[in-house]
Design a protein that fits this description.
Layout lengths: L4 E10 L2 E7 L5 E5 L6 H9 L24 E9 L2 E9 L12 E4 L2 E3 L11 E4 L11 H15 L3 H20 L5 H35 L10 E6 L1 H5 L5 H14 L1 H7 L10 E6 L4 E2 L5 H23 L4 E5 L7 H14 L3 E5 L13 E6 L2 E4 L6
């Protein structure tokens, strides 16, 4: 077994599902079809919560509850993963009162674990959604979030480092707002900020280097998806290959101290890895991805996601779960066939959604076809040849 897979998925009071259960045959494609608004994306969002982080929509936990339920929800999956068979579960209990903040719970084999980061010992999850389509033309913050998701899939502790950096920056900004802030306290905060900042930058740089190697190794495969070259844009990231972490930390601390007045006037920290960017180039044309056509951008994004999935398989020995939301609908027949071939070569359990089952005609014989309708999931009865 070289692919992590879900054997059974159970949803309770999740989004538009009051109660749903899906049994699966094993690794291989799973296709979810149904009308728009039926709950296809809701279902793969539930799966995405079995990975570190807040899922593919980054939703607030209370928003995930069934509208007519008691405010609680649960997602459970029997998985065959990197440590064998296990049951992963997450959710929140019904609120104890109007002012009670729900606490997300995570369990493995019914035993509580500290966070969803523990799920990464069993399986890794990668996704591609329509919300990611404007990635190359959008703000740098969206590309950083995309990159951090790539890092998180190979390093389950990355989200805690990113969160720590955000807390440090907020603390520094608050201190700079004070007319007479304690310089010793400010120096202590900047000391911690530099340590965390370099750790975040180093984790991103390592993933980008590995992913760049995976892209190069697969350069000649699936030519329907253009070869992509990636790089990190930021002074700290550029120093990492030839300077020690301590040297870069010291340089950043000096920079933070020097820029206190400027940052105080701006109300934010104007330098650091929280402003770095991910550069993506269409290698065949030698142009930035942002200058490519809409179709080429989609193909480049698919190339990145496929390379990332292969990288995870090389690093862990197991192919990750892939969640592809409405991906094939906008691909021409050649790229659609190439995608199916690439997924078959990866050997992963792939969950795909689409309103038109005919779009999956090439893989009907090897996919589990399911119809989503009104909060229920049933085997699809094919009406076409």
């Amino acid at each position: 077994m070289t692919a992590a897979c879900i054997r059974r998925l159970t949803l309770t009071n999740f989004r538009n599902y009051h109660a749903a259960q899906i049994g699966l045959d094993g690794a291989g494609p799973v296709v979810l079809t149904g009308a728009n608004g039926a709950g296809k994306t809701n279902l793969i969002e539930a799966i995405s919560l079995l990975a570190p982080g807040r899922g593919l929509r980054r939703a607030i936990m209370e928003e995930l509850a069934f509208a007519e339920g008691d405010g609680g929800w649960a997602v459970s999956a029997e998985v065959e993963g990197m440590l064998g068979l296990a049951t992963l579960g997450t959710g929140i209990d019904p609120p104890a009162g109007e002012d009670a903040a729900p606490s997300r719970k995570c369990r493995i084999d019914r035993e509580s674990v500290g966070s969803a980061a523990a799920f990464a010992d069993h399986l890794r999850v990668v996704w591609l959604t329509p919300a990611m389509d404007p990635l190359f033309n959008g703000p740098a913050s969206e590309r950083r979030r995309f990159l951090d998701r790539l890092v998180l899939a190979v390093d389950a502790q990355h989200s805690s480092r990113v969160a720590a950096l955000e807390r440090c920056l907020r603390s520094r900004n608050r201190l700079l707002e004070e007319a007479h802030s304690d310089p010793h306290w400010l120096e202590a905060v900047e000391h911690e900020t530099a340590e965390v900042a370099v750790a975040v930058a180093a984790a991103r740089a390592e993933t980008v280097n590995r992913l760049s190697g995976a892209l190069t190794a697969a350069r000649d495969s699936a030519p329907e998806f253009p070869h992509a070259e990636i790089a990190l844009e930021g002074w700290m990231e550029k120093l990492l290959p030839n300077h020690s972490a301590i040297e870069i930390e010291d340089r950043y601390r000096a920079l933070l101290k020097e820029n206190r007045a400027r940052d105080a006037a701006a109300g934010r920290t104007l330098d650091g890895p929280h402003l770095s960017d991910l550069s993506v180039t269409h290698a065949g044309k030698g142009i930035l991805a942002s200058d490519a056509s809409t179709g080429e951008q989609k193909a480049l994004l698919i190339r990145l996601v496929l390379a990332h999935a292969r990288l995870i398989k090389e690093m862990t020995g197991f192919a990750p779960l892939l969640l592809l939301d409405e991906v094939v609908a906008h691909l021409d027949p050649a790229r659609r066939a190439a995608l199916y071939d690439a997924l078959a070569a990866l050997g992963a359990q792939v969950w795909m959604t689409g309103a038109d089952p005919a779009a999956f005609g090439d893989i009907i014989g090897r996919a589990q076809m399911l119809e989503v309708r009104g909060g229920a999931v049933e085997p699809l009865r094919l009406k076409f040849q």
